[in-house]
Amino acid sequence: MRRIRIIGIGAGNPEHVTIQAIKALNTVDVVFVPDKGVEKSALRELREEICRRYIEHDNCRTVPLKVPKRAAAGDDYRGSVDDWHAALAESYERLFRDELGEDQTGALLVWGDPSLYDSTLRIIEAVRARGLAFDYDVIPGITSVQALAAAHRLVLNRIGEPVTITTGRKLAEGGFQDESGTTIVMLDGEQAFAKIDPAGLDIWWGAYLGAPQEIIASGPLAEIADDVVRTREAARAENGWIMDTYLLRRRGQ
Ligand SMILES: C[S@@+](CC[C@H](N)C(=O)[O-])C[C@H]1O[C@@H](n2cnc3c(N)ncnc32)[C@H](O)[C@@H]1O
């Protein structure tokens, strides 16, 4: 039976790749490499670098996986994501059928870890639901949240308190809600941290975590939010892309 290995590769440093992931990579015949266009080419290059560095045999092929652009969400965010997943499931199915022999193994290299704000596992289940029989397993990776905590030498939770992981979109909609705990924000293309009431909040921010361009900043949100917005904009212009994550917490509790 065909087999797909879904491998977390860490958040931007080839040295995040675990020994378990390296062993898994060395069992595969084909690595499917998502191609999201020019702005994401840096991310594709990291995946290619990982294959070059860690796959020891010569009979592994890489096959590009064209990722269709998601339609603008409009009022129906869930609907646009569902349509996008359906399109992806169709192209994954075609590739698995065309590029993998009946007894071959393919790998999907997932940024960070597949359990966190990543749809690969949902899409894989959708491919199975379409009728293609294959087995799959998951190899965990270091998430951008762990990379953020390490870069700032932070413990994520206050003693006995919760940690919420959310998106920029949700933070912009609801403001900071986590009075005694910690909120970690990902997928923030709109700099929501600069739109909420900053009084009493501290931020620990990081971009390109684990990569050579890594930038971090921390301090009272009211004092550093504008600087972070400027730094972020300049870095995005220089590199052509940016990924950032941050942690927010009410001071002194
Ligand atoms: C689609 S999610 C993928 C998360 C990934 N599965 C993980 O485990 O970190 C993309 C978001 O992850 C965060 N992210 C991923 N890599 C990052 C990095 N190297 N530095 C900062 N943030 C990163 C950003 O918030 C980005 O918008």
Automatic annotation (TrEMBL):
Reactions listed under catalytic activity: precorrin-5 + S-adenosyl-L-methionine + H2O = precorrin-6A + acetate + S-adenosyl-L-homocysteine + 2 H(+)
Broadest EC class assigned to this enzyme: transferase
Any GO BP: methylation
Alphabetical UniProt keywords: Cobalamin biosynthesis, Methyltransferase, S-adenosyl-L-methionine, Transferase
The UniProt record lists the keyword Phosphoprotein: no
CDD domains registered for this protein in UniProt: Precorrin-6A-synthase
The protein's Enzyme Commission number: 2.1.1.152
InterPro entries: 4pyrrol_Mease, 4pyrrol_Methylase_sf, 4pyrrole_Mease_sub1, 4pyrrole_Mease_sub2, CobF
Name assigned to this protein: Precorrin-6A synthase [deacetylating]
Pathway(s) it belongs to: Cofactor biosynthesis; adenosylcobalamin biosynthesis
GO terms, molecular function: precorrin-6A synthase (deacetylating) activity
NCBIfam families xref list: CobF
Organism whose genome encodes this protein: Bosea vestrisii
Pfam families, per the entry: TP_methylase
Segments forming domain Tetrapyrrole methylase: 4-225
Name of the encoding gene: cobF
